[in-house]
Write a structure and sequence with these properties.
elongated; mainly alpha; 2 helices
Amino acid sequence: MKNAPDSTPMVIHVGREELVIRRRYEVASIANDALVALWFVTGSIMFFSEEWTTAGTWCFLIGSIELLIRPAIRLSRHLHLQRVHSRTLWSRSPAAPPTDSSQDY
């Protein structure tokens, strides 16, 4: 029986600079997600009291704005990696450009 193509290990070569960039944006994304959760939980708790309803509404608004930050982080990461890849392609011999991973952070 032949070996299945899936049995061969996949090797991905990623430069140190790219790993640093990915980790930084991942940390920013995780921190942003934690803030979104905090704003919405705080706003939800504030809605249990009439006096805190306005403050709770502001927490929901801030949380919603935080949700807009996530795609901005992803776009920034993509553009930053694209600049790094184009710079490294010029300094090396011609090769296929590295592809961005589908990690969602």
